[in-house]
Amino acid sequence: MLALCRRNLLLYFKNKAGLFFSLLGAMISLVLYVIFLKKSMLDSWAAVPHSRQLLDLWLIGGTLSVTGITTTLTALGQLAKDREQQVIKDFMLTDLSRFEIKVSYLLSASLIGFLMQVVMFVIMVGYFGMSDQLSLDTSKLVAILGIAALGALLSVTGNMLIVEFVHRIDTLGTIGTIVGTATGFLVGTYIPIGVLPTFAQTLIKLTPGAYLASLYRQVMMDQQLAQAFPARAARQHFERLMGVRLDWGHLLSTTGTLQIIILMVLAGILLLFVTELVQQRRHQLATKK
């Protein structure tokens, strides 16, 4: 199984075009912010101390969530490709079970999602460090890496459920284009959630990636928020408007957001397990016939 994981990792990183396009959604959110959104957002929060660094961290949190979603979907494209080209059947001739084969794709895609989030984090912190003198407390790095790992699992379980029902790589390519375009909106990166109509806000709050972006923002922005908003009411207004904490009648705490993400990951794993059992049952029935 480890050999199959290594093979999937090598195929992903050797495909330069695929690697670029898997990061395109994240790069688009960064470019849109720097070129089009940053000035208007800074004007809106001009009275807030260190607003430039605060908004940079807000953007980083959302972009990392986008990165986890798009890169894991691209990585799982290898599963769709292998299935279409009947390579999966060759793997089944080895000692590996169907379950182990699926787990190998899951693990390799999760590792890719984690690594690419780390890469994007380094790129963005480096860029904003040079352009805006952004600095991040190194004590938060462990928590950020933990969120990246959890985010990779959250993204890969959701994307795996999609890929399980895709049997052509061309179809997955179309889905990937849609996901890459829509994800920036659905995690509240292109437009702050608070300025959207109620229906759009509800749609975002039903998107798993929005909770990941929220958790990133809460961890990275906590110290800056405390300095920028001494008044509790003003801080809560900013957090609600910008999607730092999602509002379900009350603003979710960091612990509450983390618990929701963990529940989503567990639910995704359970659904994948049930789906695999159903597919194995169908395969057994087809073989008997």
> What is the overall number of helices?
12
- Which bin fits the share of residues in helices? over 70%
Oligomer: single chain
User: What is the radius of gyration?
Assistant: 20 Å
Amount of beta strand: under 5%
Q: What does the average pLDDT come to?
A: 90
Task: Specify the biggest β-sheet.
Answer: none
Order of helices and strands: HHHHHHHHHHHH
What characteristic shape results from the CA principal axes?
elongated
* Structural domain tally: 1
What does this structure look like?
The two termini are 30 Å apart. This protein is mostly helical and 289 residues long. It has one domain (2-288). Helices cover 80% and strands 0% of the residues. The model has no long low-confidence stretch (mean pLDDT 90). The chain has 12 helices and no strands. Helix 2 (16-22) packs across helix 4, helix 4 runs parallel beside helix 7 (141-163) and helix 4 (51-84) runs antiparallel to helix 10 (208-228). The radius of gyration is 20 Å and the shape is elongated.
Topology, element by element:
Elements: H1 2-14, H2 16-22, H3 24-44, H4 51-84, H5 87-91, H6 98-132, H7 141-163, H8 169-186, H9 198-205, H10 208-228, H11 232-242, H12 254-288
Notable characteristics:
12 helices, mainly alpha, 80% helix, elongated
